[in-house]
C-alpha cells in the first residue's frame, strides 16, 4: 500500500515536499542503497569515494560529515514531524529505510524513501511508550549504527555526526513547527521537543548521553547585541568543500573571539 494513503492530502504534501519523504519504489535506482548495506565498510567506502568529488569534498571524513547532515535532515524531519504534528508513527529502521545520495548542480536532491509505510499507532494512554519506540528506532536503531560506521571507516568524530543530527532537530522544532497555527498541535510539538531535550534517556540514542541536550549551547549575542546565534560546538567541515569557502550561519569558527 502506498505510503501516501496513510496521510491526508495536506499532510502528504508537507512530508513529500519540503521533508522529502517518498515510497521506496520511487527511489533513485542509480544513487541509493538500503541503510543496512551502508554498515558494510567496503560499501561505505565506495559510496563516500563516489560522492566526494560530486560534492567537492577533499576527504572521506568530510564527505561522511556532509552526508551525515543530509541524512539527519531527511530521517529526523520525516519521522519527528509526522510524530509531533500529525501524531502518526513512521518507524525508520535499517531494513525499512533507503539511503539516497543524489546531488546535482551543487544541491542535494536526495529524498527519504521507506519500504513499509504502515504508521505505528497507539492506544489510550500509550503515547509516551509509542513515542519512545519511534525515537529509539530512529536514533539508536538507524542513525547510531550509521554514525559508528562513518567513524570507523573515515575517523570523522562521532561528536560531529551527532551534532549534525542535533542541529537538524533544533531547526525542525524551533523553526518549521513554530509556524503551525493550531495551538493544540503546537502545544504537542513543544511538549515532544521538551521531552526530547530533557527527559529522553541516553539509551534511546544508543549512547551514554543525550546528544540533543549535550550540544545545546547557549545563544551568543552578535552585531553589538542586535541578534543572537546559537553557535555549534563542533564544525561540520562544510567550508572545506566549498570554493570560495562558505560557512554555516552557526559555524563555531564564526563565533566572536574564534580565529579561523
UniProtKB/TrEMBL annotation:
GO molecular function list: 2 iron, 2 sulfur cluster binding; catalytic activity
InterPro entries: FhuF_C (IPR024726), IucA/IucC-like_C (IPR022770)
Pfam families in the cross-refs: FhuF (PF06276), FhuF_C (PF11575)
Domain Ferric siderophore reductase C-terminal: 232-253
Aerobactin siderophore biosynthesis IucA/IucC-like C-terminal domain ranges (all copies): 67-212
Protein name: Siderophore-iron reductase, Fe-S cluster protein
Source species of the chain: Pseudomonas laurylsulfativorans
Organism placement in taxonomy: Bacteria, Pseudomonadati, Pseudomonadota, Gammaproteobacteria, Pseudomonadales
Amino acid at each position: 500500500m502506498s505510503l501516501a494513503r496513510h496521510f491526508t492530502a495536506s499532510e502528504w504534501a508537507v512530508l513529500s515536499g519540503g521533508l522529502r519523504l517518498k515510497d521506496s519504489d520511487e527511489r533513485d535506482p542509480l544513487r541509493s542503497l538500503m541503510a543496512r548495506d551502508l554498515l558494510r565498510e567496503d560499501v561505505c567506502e565506495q559510496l563516500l569515494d563516489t560522492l566526494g568529488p560530486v560534492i567537492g569534498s577533499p576527504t572521506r571524513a568530510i564527505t561522511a560529515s556532509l552526508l551525515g547532515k543530509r541524512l539527519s535532515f531527511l530521517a529526523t524531519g520525516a519521522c519527528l514531524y509526522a510524530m509531533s504534528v500529525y501524531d502518526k508513527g513512521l518507524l525508520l529502521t535499517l531494513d525499512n529505510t533507503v539511503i539516497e545520495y543524489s546531488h546535482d548542480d551543487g544541491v542535494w536532491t536526495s529524498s527519504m524513501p521507506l519500504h513499509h509505510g504502515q504508521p505505528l499507532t497507539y492506544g489510550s494512554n500509550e503515547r509516551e511508550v509509542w513515542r519512545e519506540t519511534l525515537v529509539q528506532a530512529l536514533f539508536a536503531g538507524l542513525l547510531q549504527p550509521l554514525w559508528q560506521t562513518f567513524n570507523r571507516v573515515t575517523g570523522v568524530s562521532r561528536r560531529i555526526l551527532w551534532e549534525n543530527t542535533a542541529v537538524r532537530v533544533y531547526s525542525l522544532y524551533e523553526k518549521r513547527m513554530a509556524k503551525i497555527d493550531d495551538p493544540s498541535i503546537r502545544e504537542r510539538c513543544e511538549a515532544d521537543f521538551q521531552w526530547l531535550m530533557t527527559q529522553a534517556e541516553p539509551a534511546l540514542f544508543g549512547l551514554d548521553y543525550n546528544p540533543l541536550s549535550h550540544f545545546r549551547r547557549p545563544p551568543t549575542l552578535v552585531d553589538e547585541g542586535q541578534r543572537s546565534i546559537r553557535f555549534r560546538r563542533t564544525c561540520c567541515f562544510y567550508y572545506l568543500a566549498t570554493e570560495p569557502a562558505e560557512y554555516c550561519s552557526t559555524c563555531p569558527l564564526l563565533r566572536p573571539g574564534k580565529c579561523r
